[in-house]
Amino acid sequence: MRPAALDWSVDNCTVARAMEILGEKWTLVVLREVFSGVRRFDDMRLRTGIPRQVLTNRLAGLVEQEVLRREPYREPGSRLRHEYRLTAKGLNLWPVLVAVLAWGDRYLADPEGPPLSVGHRDCGAEISVELHCAAGHHVTEPRDVLPRPGPGAHPR
């Protein structure tokens, strides 16, 4: 049976566009650091081992895409430097990182468990990403999700 998806163009696919920004390993590692409160270049480099030029490029790309913004700071007696803060666009990536974290915890964690957890600031309970339809139904099975053409879809 021929998949209906073949009838629709993927030229304006937002998954592909998002992956142009996020699809490189170090980009998600940088975002993990910023979400964890590590905002300065040298701290990120020390903590992650990302090569200097790669980190420079990833940060520049995330600033260019308005996922991060540069904030100036100056340590006493030092030159002006910048730290990196999440924009509203960047903050909206938090569910994506939580979903990637949950997948990694499920399939890739060491035997003693995952090295990072995320909790609700108010009550401390673990955070998870869940799917709900617009009518409010909880969706637990991937096969209960039906991809279909959206309002911006174009026939092939």
Automatic annotation (TrEMBL):
The lineage's top-level taxon is Bacteria
InterPro entries per the UniProt record, alphabetical? HTH_HxlR, WH-like_DNA-bd_sf, WH_DNA-bd_sf
Which Pfam families does the protein's record reference?
Answer: HxlR
**SUPFAM superfamilies recorded:** Winged helix' DNA-binding domain
Q: Enumerate the UniProt keywords alphabetically.
A: DNA-binding, Transcription, Transcription regulation
PROSITE patterns linked: HTH_HXLR
MF terms from GO for this chain are: DNA binding
Asked if Transcription regulation is a keyword of the record, the answer is yes
- Sequence ranges assigned to domain HTH hxlR-type in this UniProt record: 13-112
Q: Does the keyword field hold Transcription regulation?
A: yes
- Which PANTHER family does this chain map to? TRANSCRIPTIONAL REGULATOR, MARR FAMILY, TRANSCRIPTIONAL REGULATORY PROTEIN
In its UniProt entry, what is this protein called? DNA-binding transcriptional regulator, HxlR family
Please name the source species. Answer: Micromonospora phaseoli
